[in-house]
Structure of Pyridoxamine 5'-phosphate oxidase:
Amino acid sequence: MDLSELRQSYTKGSFSEQDLLASPFEQFEKWFQQAMDSQLEEPNAMCLATVSKDGQPSTRIVLLKDFSDKGMTFYTNYESRKSVEIEATGKVAANFLWLPLQRQVNVTGRVERVSKSESLKYFLSRPFGSQLGAWTSPQSKVITSRSVLETKLDQMKRKFAEGKVPLPDHWGGYRIVPDSFEFWQGRPNRLHDRFVYRKDEASQWFTERLAP
């Protein structure tokens, strides 16, 4: 398969020093709102990268469920591959790709568990089926067939037939506490606009332009 001619020209926008807000959290919120306003499908989807103890990276798509100047929160099974790697290294990277806007945001940072009360509040807001799913799937573990999941789901439906599903001990939230943000805007001729926010020795954010 020859993919050498598969390309697009990025002409939808520009991004300059004058456009940068002082806080990367404010800049992310502005771009995220613009992605929402553009009615992109799941603008909160992010590609989350973790690394195993032996240095093997892995990625998957997770959904951002809360965002503030404290960080970015997502929820998962604490026994999954991603969680094992997070607990081992304490660090992740995340990428948001808003292709119709020809934009990306890259985030790096350390990770911390959110409080159990935060996890419970979000868990109770989930649809009944998603709550059951958290009890059903041994995420990232090998299973012999899909029937294993379907059988377990039937068991959970009977167990929680009254509709009150408790928060599993193995399920909850992580918060990414960023140490860098990179904002990327596609431009013609592959001369894209890239700006990175980092912290100085006084923990104040500063910005630099990066070559594309």
